[in-house]
Structure to design on (458 residues):
């Protein structure tokens, strides 16, 4: 049986030619490790509750507690792992480690995970880890760059806002929102599956079921990145399904709805109403228009070049601007913005609070629809993305070639023609968008009461 160590015997233990371990009979599992150099440290030995050998036996593990403290430097504070320890301190930490083993925890593995995490994150607070994720997660799984609009939306869902133009720095939103409104200040390693489920349930109860789905998607990506960087051992989002079913409601707007939409956009005004009008005239994606910067426009040549960093497929996209689109752009107020955004309130961020603004637009649209059709009682649900469906449907009706339809909206089927062909269809795209703008103008003017920006007909 091992002899019980004392403070004096530990201090007087002599080094030998080889490293040796002296068991402490006063605390089974605790050892004083004496190196040939004379350095002494404490370690606790145990069998891992998590790791097993190929034969099925629990693997023997060792956890180094810290160096032997000099009696002259005795510290009456709380014993801490990695700091100089007296015999009494070492016994306290050893007993604590062995109790965790009994609960199914491997303290040696915990220490490894903690040290690895410290190499990557300056803090284990969840907001610091999420901010690092937003700054460093730049590419999709197959290597394509992540669009700026996608990064901004992911940050919003997590509760962060960029503080640099290149999105390399992020901070908490003010007021707090997103996942961090609930988790701010917590250790990311302490976020559990139950925490994720509670957050999603809360979002659903607040009337944002689809928002809960999008939040889960952002969290899965952030936590998966944290696992890859060894910040956390496993994602708390594993085996968590979308909390709400999503039904496809793809549709095209009718001519009456187009008239009501244009009128409503006029009533709502800048910036959101003007943004919606440009969305309708160009048929591009919401965030491609929302964060449109003046540097992307060449009004002299009537073109808008969307850089690949902002497009869904990562390809630069040239949009010929119809006379109506030019008139809409030239009528916009000029608000000073470092980024050059056209649709902004104060110039610091592009137009935001989109859900609230869309509800206001819907209310105005129903009012206008009832003026046209007094029997109308409800507005059929629609999304801004349906404006793309509306343009595509109109182009199909006009028998515009599929290649041109795809080129107008930057769709890429991946067939051999598109892979080997490099024709841009600029002339055909311009003709299609001019014809579409003329159709919108004619449709709105046909009602006789809606005001349309004065622009020449194609």
């Amino acid at each position: 049986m091992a002899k019980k160590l004392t403070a004096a015997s530990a201090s007087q233990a002599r080094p030998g030619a080889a490293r040796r371990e002296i068991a402490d009979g006063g605390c089974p599992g605790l050892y004083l490790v004496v190196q040939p150099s004379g350095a002494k440290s404490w370690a606790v030995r145990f069998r891992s509750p998590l790791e097993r050998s190929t034969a099925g036996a629990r693997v023997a593990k060792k956890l180094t507690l810290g160096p032997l403290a000099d009696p002259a430097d005795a510290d009456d504070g709380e014993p801490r792992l990695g700091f100089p320890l007296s015999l009494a301190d070492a016994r306290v930490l050893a007993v604590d480690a062995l109790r965790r083993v009994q609960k199914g925890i491997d303290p040696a593995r915990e220490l490894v995970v903690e040290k690895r995490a410290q190499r990557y994150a300056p803090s284990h607070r969840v907001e610091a880890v999420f901010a690092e994720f937003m700054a460093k997660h730049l590419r999709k799984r197959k290597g394509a760059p992540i669009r700026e609009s996608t990064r901004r939306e992911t940050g919003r869902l997590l509760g962060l806002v960029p503080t640099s133009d290149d999105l390399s720095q992020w901070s908490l939103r003010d007021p707090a929102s997103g996942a961090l409104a609930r988790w701010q200040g917590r250790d990311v390693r302490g976020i559990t599956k139950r925490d994720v489920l509670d957050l999603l349930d809360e979002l659903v109860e607040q009337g944002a079921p689809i928002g809960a789905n999008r939040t889960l998607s952002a969290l899965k990506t952030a936590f998966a990145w944290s696992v890859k960087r060894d910040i956390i051992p496993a994602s708390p989002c594993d085996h968590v399904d979308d909390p709400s079913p999503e039904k496809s409601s793809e549709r095209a707007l009718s001519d009456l709805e187009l008239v009501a939409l244009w009128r409503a956009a006029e009533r709502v005004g800048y910036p959101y109403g003007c943004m919606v009008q440009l969305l309708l005239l160009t048929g591009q994606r919401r965030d491609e228009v929302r964060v449109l910067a003046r540097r992307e426009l060449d009004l002299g040549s009537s073109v808008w070049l969307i850089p690949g960093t902002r497009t869904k497929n990562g390809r630069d996209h040239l949009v010929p601007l119809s006379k109506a689109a030019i008139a809409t752009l030239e009528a916009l107020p000029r608000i000073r913005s470092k980024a050059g955004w056209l649709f902004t309130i104060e110039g610091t961020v592009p137009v935001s609070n989109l859900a609230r603004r869309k509800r206001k637009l819907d209310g105005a649209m129903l009012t206008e629809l009832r003026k046209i059709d007094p029997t109308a009682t409800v507005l059929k649900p629609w999304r801004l993305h349906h404006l793309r469906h509306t343009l595509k449907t109109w182009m199909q009706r006009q028998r515009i070639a599929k290649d041109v339809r795809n080129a107008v909206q930057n769709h890429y089927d991946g067939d051999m023609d598109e892979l080997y062909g490099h024709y841009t269809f600029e002339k055909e795209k311009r003709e299609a968008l001019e014809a579409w703008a003329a159709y919108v103008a004619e449709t709105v003017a046909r009602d006789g009461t809606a005001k349309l920006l004065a622009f020449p007909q194609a």
Notes: The domain at 255-447 is CATH 1.10.443.10 (hpI Integrase; Chain A). The CA atoms of residues 122 and 128 lie 7 Å apart. The longest strand covers residues 40-52. The chain has 17 helices and nine strands.
